[in-house]
Structure formats: C-alpha cells, structure tokens
Amino acid sequence: MRISTVDLFQRAISNFNEQQVNLFNIQDKIATGKKITKPSDDPIGASKALNNRSQKNVLTQFIDNMQTVSSQLEYEDTNLETSSNIIQRIRELTVYAGNGVLNSSDKKAIIVEMQERLAELISVANSTDASGEYMFSGFKSNNPPVWLDRNGQYQYQGDEGHREIMVSQMSSIFAVDNAKDIFFKIPSNTVDGLSTIVNTNTGTGVISTPIIYAPIPDVNKSYSIIFNPGATTFNIYDNADLAQPLPGFQNLPYTSGEEIDFMGVRVAISGIPNASDTFGISFKQPSTQDIFTTVTNIIQSIQKIGDDPVRLSYEIGVGLSNLDAAQDAILQTRSSVGARLNALDSNKNYQENLKILAEKNLSLEEDLDYDSAITQLSQYSLALQAAQQSFVKIQTLSIFNFIR
Amino acid sequence: MSNMLNIGTSGLVTAQNALDTVANNIANVNTPGYSRQRIVQETLPETVSGPSFVGAGATASGIKRLVDSFIAQSLQNASANLYQAENYLEILQQVDNLLADPTLGVGEDINQFFNALHDVNNDPSSIVARQVFVSQAQRLENSFEASYQQIESIFQSINSELIDTVQQINRFSQEIANLNFQLMGFQDVSAGNMPNELLDKRENLLQNLSQLIGIATVSDNSGAINVFVGKGQPLVLGNQKVTLGTQINPYDAKILDVVVTNGLSSQNISQGITGGRLGGVITAREKVLPYVENALGRIAITLSTTFNQQHQKGISLNGELGKQFFRDPNDIATMLARSFSNIYNSGNGVLSVAIEPIEPPSDFLSVTSEITSMIPANTMPTYASGTFNINGVNIPVTKIGDDTVSTSDALGSAIAISTAINSVGVALSVKASAQENVIYLGTFTPGTFGAGNFAINGVDIITTGATADTLVHDINVLSNQTGVIAINDATSNITLIASDGRNIQLTTDGNATVAHFAYFATNTTVALDQVQRAPIELISTHGQTITMSGGSPALLGFTAKSYPPLYTSLQTTDYELTFDGSVYSLRRTVDMSLVAQSSIPNLTGDGFTLQLASGKIFAGDSFIIRPTNRGATDFTVQISDPTMLALGSPVESNADLYNKGTGKILVSKITNTSGEPISTPNVYGNAFSKPGVLTPPIQIVFVSATVYQVLDVSAGLPGKQIGPDQKYDPALSFNEVFPITSVVNNTLPGPHLNYTYDPGYRIQLQGEPQAGDIFNIAYNNDAISDNRNATLLIDLQFGKFVENNSASFQESFAQLVGNIGSQSVQAQINNNVNQSTMLAITTRRNEVSGVNLDEEATNLLQYEQAYQAAAQIIVIARTMFDTLLHALGA
After folding, report:
1. Using a CB-CB distance cutoff of 8 angstroms, which residues of chain B are in contact with residue A51?
2. Distance separating alpha carbons of residues B119 and A173, to the nearest angstrom
3. pTM
4. ipTM given for this complex
C-alpha cells in the first residue's frame, strides 16, 4: 500500500485532536469533581442521580418539618405544664377553702389568688406562638380560643383543626392540639341546672328555682311533688314509680315558702296549691364543663355560700372532681405530645439515615473517582506526547533532505 | 544518426513532460481533491529499415489521473453520512448541555417548588412563607419558559442554517452544471487525454455537495454527471441545475421546509432528505426537538392540571374558594394553539384541543345502575344474550331460580341479574349485588283497606288505617311474606323498603287507595299492578375499570361506558388529523399509528379531546395536533397575591361541646367545589354554590347510638332531614356520611325516582357517639392556620400522574434527561463510526490518488536521470557526427 503525504499529516492532526478531546474531558471532570458533566456521559446514571437528588431533597425537607413540629410540640408542652401547675395550685386553694373555718379575710385572700390564677390560666390557653398566632385555636388561629361572652359564659372560639405536618412520605404528625380538647371538653358530673315542670295546676302554688345543696344520687331521674287531698300535705315521687312515694317523703306538711330538701335538691313552694297539683323537677346535666367555668363556679361558691357548710362542701367536692378531670385532660394531652415527640425522634433518626444513604448513592452516581481520573489523565497525556514525538520523528524523514 | 538525434530528442521531451508532471504533483501535494498524475509513456512508431524494425524513441501520449471512480462514490456516501451524524450530534449536544446541570433547571425547580410548599404547610398563615412559595412557583415558570425558549432558539438557528445551506447547495450545483457543460464530450475517463483539473474539480464539488446533502450520482454517456437528492429529485441534469429554496411549513410558520422551485410551483422535499448537514439538522428537528418540548410540556401540563384541580378544592386566607393557581391548560386561546391547520386546506375549520382531567389511579371502583320508574307488572324487559357485556364478557341470560323471592318479573329482578353476573364474575373481576329497593308513597290519608284494595308483592294489606302508624304496623306484620317493610315519618309520609333488593310489586284497585296515598292520586284512578326493580351495584374486585358495553345495557339501568372514564395519559408525540370526506382519522406522527376515527370532528386521543371550534372541514383537509408542545411556555403562575393560595379546606366539622359519646367527625375529602351538582343522573347536591357558606349547612344528630339523621339547617334549627335515618356502626373504623342514597324526592305531584345526595365533600364519623350527640358541618371561615389542602397539594409531588400513571413529575423529568443522554451517546457512537469509515475511505482514496513526496522525489531523480541520459544521446550523436565530419574533412 501507499501512503500519501497529506494523509501522514491529516492522520497526525486527527490523532492529536482525539487525544486532546480526551484530555479536555477528563480535565473538565477533575475540575468539577463530577463524573457526569452532561447526561450523555452516563444517561442512566444521570437520571438516577436526578432521582436520588430529588429523594435527598425531600428527605431534607422532612427532617426540617420534624424540626418545626418538634419545637412547636415542645412549646405546647411547656404551656401545658404551666397550666397543669396552675390547676394544681387552684386545687390546693379549693381544698383549703373547703377545709377549715375561714374568716372573711382568709376567704378574700383565697378568692383574690384564685382570680389571679384563673386569669393566668386563661392567658396560657390564649398564648400565641412566635408569629403572634393563638396556638390552641385549631385552624382559627386569629381568634383567641378562650373568650368570656356578655352572658358570663366562656366560649371556645377555635375549631377542631389539627395541623398535620408531613414527616415522611406516608405519615404525618399533628402539631399542636386545640383548646377544645384540653380546656373545654372536660367530662363533668356537675348538675348545672334544674328545671321545674308545672302542669295545669289549679291552685296558685309557685315553685322556686331549685338549687343543689348535696350530691345528686342519680341525675337521670326526675321527681314530682304532688299535693294530697286537702292540699295540706304532699308526697314526693320518683317519676319512674308514681304509685309509691319516695321513702321518707310521704305526707310532708306544707308550709308556704318553706324549703324542701330531697335527693340533694333544695326547693320551696309558696302560695296556695290545690289537691293533685303537681310540681316536677328534673336535672339538666351537661356532660362537659370547661375549666374556666369550673374555677369561676368554685370562686362563686366560696364567695356566696360560705354560710351553708353542707352546700359549700358539695360545691367544693364537685369543683375538685372537675379540677381533677381537667388535670387528667391536660395529662392526656401531654402524654400524647410526649408520644409524638418520641415518634418524631425515632422517625428523625430513620429519615436521617435514609438521607445519608441517598447522599451516598448520589455521590456514587455523580462524584468522580479521583484516583482513576488522574490515572486516566496521565494516560491520555502520555499518549498525546507519544503521538507528538513520533510525528516529529517521522516528518523529518524525507528524500528531499538528501537531494543536494 | 538523425534517427538517433530524434530518439534522443523524444527521450528528452518525454523526460521533460514527466518531470513537469512530477513537479505538478509536488506543487499540488496539499490541494484538496487533487489526484496525482502520471504521464502515459509510449514508444514512437518504429521505422522500417530493411528487413528489421528500428525503434524511433519514446513519447508522452497523455497525462493520466490516478483515480478509482468507485472510491469517489463511496467517499460521497461516507461524507454524506458523516456530516449528517455530525450535525445531528451537534444539535443533540446542545440539548444535552441544556439539561446538563442537575442543580439548575426544571428538575431542581420542581423539587424546590414542593419544598416551598412544605414550608407553607408548616406555617400556613405566614405571608412570608406563602410569598416564598409563589416566588418559587414563578421560578419554576421561568425555568420551563427558559428551557422552551432554548429549544425554540435551536429551531430558529436550524432555519437560518437551512437558508445558508440551501444557498451553498445552489452554488455548488451551478458549478457542477457548468463543469458538466465544459466536460461534455470527454466520456472516456480512463483515457490519458482528459482535462484532469476539471475532473478533479467536479469530483471535489460533488464531495463538498455531499457534505451538505445526501446525493446520488449517475454519469451519462455525454460525460456529464447527473446529481439526484432525496427520493430521486434531480438537482443537476447535464448542464442544467434545479434551484432549491426554503418555504414556510404549511402547518407551522416557525418551521422552514426545503423546496424545489420549478417555475411557479414548488415541491416540498424536506421529508425525503437524508445525509449531509441538511439531513442531520432536519432529522434532529423532527425527532429530537419536538420530543424535548413535548416531554417538558407534558410535565408542565400535568403539573398545572393536577395542581389546579386540587387548589380549587381549597380556600384562601380570606376564606374564598381556590382559583386556578396556574393558567388553565384548557383556556380557549391555549386550546386553539394546540392545532395547526394546513394552509392549503380548502375548509376554514379550526380545531380546539382540550386536555382531559388527570386523576390518580383509583383503588376502589364501583358503579350502581340507575333505578327505572315503576312499570306495569310482567313487562320488565328481559334481555337476549349479547345485549349486555361487562369488561367485554357477555352476561348470561337469567334463568328461573336465580331469584326465588320476587313475586313479579323475577327474571328481570336485581337479584336475578346479580346472580347471573356473579356466575361469570371471576372472569369479569366484578362482583354484583342487589341494593335496597325503596319506593316513596307520599303522605298517607287515614282510611280502611280491605281485601283487594292494596297488595304488596301479592299479599293483601288489610288494615283499619286509623293512622299512619297503624298502616305501617299492619304492613310490617306481613313483612315475612312480602319481604317489604314500611316506615313513616312525623308527617305520615310512607316509604316501602325491600332490603334484600327484590322487586316491589304494588297492586291497587284504584278506588280505595287513591284517596289514601298521594302517590296513587297522581297516577290514575284505575286499577294498577306495577313493579319496580332495585338498583344493582357492581364493585371491581381488582380495582380495575368497569366497562359496560353490548347491545342495550340501558335495559338494566346501566350506561354503555367505562367507570371511571378511561383517560389514557398524554404522550410525547404529535398527531395528524385527516379527513377523507367521510371519516376523520387521528394518527400519531411518531409512527403513524391510528388513535381514533370518527365521522364527526370530535375525537379522543391520548389524554386529550379535540373538536371543531369554528368553520368547516372539507375532504382532504389536514391538521397537525400538538397537545403538549407549548405546555412549557404556557405554564404560567396566575396567582401573585400570596393570600390567594388555597391551603385550607372549605368545610369545617365539629362535635358539639356537650356530646356525651366519644364520636368524632372529620372531613375526609373535597370532591366537587364547582357549585354545580356533578353531572351524573339522579345525583343532586352542591354545597359550594354561594360564597362563604355551605349550601346547606348540615347538622348530624344521633337519635340512638346506632342511628343518626342528617339535617339541612339552612333555615335554622330544627333542620329538615335529608334522606332516611342512617345506620351507624361503631365497630367500623369510620362511617362515611355522604353520598346519601335513596333520598326521597317528595316534591309532589307524582311518583319520583329517589336520588342520591352528594354535597361535594365527604364526612367520616368514628368512635362511639350517644343518643343526642350533635355534629355540625359548616363553611370553614377564619381558619387561617388550616393546612389540610396544602397537605393534599404536597401529595401531588409523589403522585404518579405522568406516563399512564407510572411516573411522578420529577421521575418524568429524569426520564427525559436519561433519554436525551442515551440518544446523545448513540449519536456520538454513530458519529465515531462514520468518522472511521470516512477516514478509511479517504485513506483508500489517497492510497490511489494522493501524492507521496518521497515517491515524487524518487520519480524526480528517475526522470532527471532519463533526461540526462537523453541529453547524452544527443551529445553522442553530435560526437558521432563530428567524427564523421572529421573523417571526411581530414
């Protein structure tokens, strides 16, 4: 075969070019530290790396989210602990108020402290987070959760919302509980009202608003006061059994305006009833009472009914049981907060491990193996040098050099 | 002696010619396309001298190019291939680089978009977090737009490259035609007396031409070479050239086509061009660039569609229902911009292309037949085999024994049909069951029924009818015979229920009953014997689509279609719509496979539908449909006010503070906030028809631990009950409240079908409520920290919405990158192969035609010596002559 002189040079040029491209590429990789500088370097690796990067991103976000929830839950727990302490102090004061014989200045001191504690409790329930939003209002974080309306009733102004924060692809954790569960919806045995039912009586007897002066044996029962013939005596019946008067409440003499005590209820009838006139009494029992009403009721009891030890001790008893229920509700919430914090901790470890794994995978896909890259670099530069030197050698060989 | 002189002279001249040729070779050592030359040296004719022939010397009869015409052809092909591969690779590399940096661009911005959404989700009332999210969304928009514009700029540069290249081709073909003219008559290439330089020049021009466009050459017997391009389109014929030009594509003004202009008419040859630079850029323009734009567009459209769908189910910080967060992929301008009509269409039809809703795969599918009105007994249509198919399987005809409890039309009852379906149910992946059969009879006016007045399922109801309670009691004592129980409400409205789904047959004599039931009063006063079939529910056992087909599924109250409707998802191909005068055909341009055919311009493609927006389409008209092409540039954030981000749920539910039980209520899903009832027959309810309130607000009241009522409290308390009393099972993990079926439509006059009440949201009850417990459902005002919708929006990040529910947005982008990467690798390999081929053939050519300086140096010496020797001959001849003269003259 023959070689044309042009080819000799062309071949050399294309060889140099090829070696230089190789050198350039490997140098680029060493400079950026990346194995893949463009998708075509490793298409599968490039797309895997994208997926790994996105996974890493998501995991970082989840870990951030957990951080956010953690700090919110810890803040909530601090508030709950404070509330719990306040309620504990109120309980002590209540016990103290119910115990000894107090003079009016003692009572006053107790009442003053209780009122302060109540205000403190309300301010804890209405506490705001760093951005000034009420933390116990559920989704309605612009409204203070606890609000005393014009009728003197405490109202919950939030909703049942629980903000869910995603902490992994499949799970989320409730941040912050709402005051409805913590402070308002507290199971209670309080009878907060009695209603009287007066049928079409023929006499002029009227029944007073009944009050409770001692524990009610069974709030689900209702009773009737029915006047006997002659209307000078009356019987009291359990409405479940209108044939048989309650034992001990048969043929009681009637005196207008005199207080009648039965089954923990105190009521008075005045006027002139006729025979068969009936006065019914039943209980209104809400199943729940908020802690603020409970405390207010205790304060009022101490204030108003200090002269009736039986009734006071009943009211104190009810108050204490409600306080305990409130304490329970807070404890329950705190244990749920604690459980969530624990779950967060373990989940966080897990997600952090996953993130490390994703980073490792990403680095495997993307990051350059410097040892082999530098070896390659010297290989390529050696090859280029060899090509250059051999070319220079060859091109000095020409017959024209010898024609003189 | 003169002979010897002549011979010497001939040697001298020949050697001189040879030296000239060698000198020419040396001079042209670097001239492209130059073929080395050799003189053709011959002996001169001998002279006859006596009996012997005496040599007369040598002559150079010609100068010959050393060429191999086969190699010249191969070289043209190889360079056409090489330049095609090179230019194709060059464009791919531009795209490759575009997608190169993983920390910039669409993929990363999708990640950041959802990360910002997480931050908003953590603190939904923070305006700052909301603003960051909106900015991030705008960044994603810019990123999509930038990618799109970069691809578009490649389209632009291809256009200017086409214009340049076509001009160059025209110049070359003109020169070739000129050379053909000059070379006419020089047919014999092998002869030594050819215009070598012209031949070299023409070969070189052909070689250069094939770098621009793939050519086929044919020599004719006049010595001209004819050049053809594409699918046999002549470019040079003899001394005539055909002019190429560029022209705007008839469908799409952004694309230039290569055309042959012939007088006034021009012919588009873009499709046929292969090889050379033109072949490379046209292939890249057809295969690579649309794919990248479409793949990006598909991600953008899928993201904006799914995000908008969910965003509209939420409420903003101001409590308004969410608007479209991104520009609606189906706004009118966008829909029209997806179709491109051919400028040569004879009709003026304009098509609009709508993207179908994009839903995640569902794991629970069911469909319930519509209940038909009451019909005279023994007239219920039975159906022949083949008239009803489920999932393509024929449902066998019912037979006696399939329903043993219905008293009339047992073969057509819901029980019988369900039995028949279940007999082949495994093949269908469907389970059928007869539902409760309910008839509302309206208000009962007290009155006596004797024998023959009123019968339910063939059993006479005999009652004093003193009150509605009496009637109900007297019906219910017979329920072991009738299979029907009656219930009444506070206002004496009577409802009959067959809970096993048997037919209910009502027989009346038309006289006694008329006065007593509003229902019958509105019918007729004559005797009636009517029957009603229960609805049938089909549940997919493997979560697959249920497809109803066959002759008349309507006989059974089903509609011939798929549940849920089948939407194949968007593809990355474009489509072509043609009309032959009777049938519209929609084909994928990537492989010309048929997608849909229809006699009206209303077709469903892969995840899109198209219809005629205006004008008329005539036979022969055609359109190009690009559903996803502009998706990346149409992707626009429409909401700039961060408070408009709809992160909360529009429905608030709560348990009354004084509930005694542990019952809980929660809003599980928002399904329809359009303010219109969903477009399904016999389903009513639209809770979001007025801003800021639910229409109606709902109260759920438990009448016992296991029964609750759903009340419409729009007119305050006490509310109006919706539907019958509902059963509550505390053992279930949750009880779904909506939709409420069998809601009696008691708008008189006349019997009405019951309907389903679906307010557009779902409520779950759980726990153990007690009698008297109350739950309220209202519009969710003031809930600034509500993030329920944000959580659902975040879920989209992980949803497999793209590529037939196989890839998330991020994965789809990674696929695009991987795809372009491997195409680019493929093109690189292809290019390398072509380079080696080119190198090998060039070497072969130079082996034959190239100049080797050492060889020429040797030749130089050789002919120099010959020249010197020939000169010596002349010297010798002169010496001989002198010798002779001396001898004579001495």
Report:
1. 810-811, 814
2. 15
3. 0.79
4. 0.76
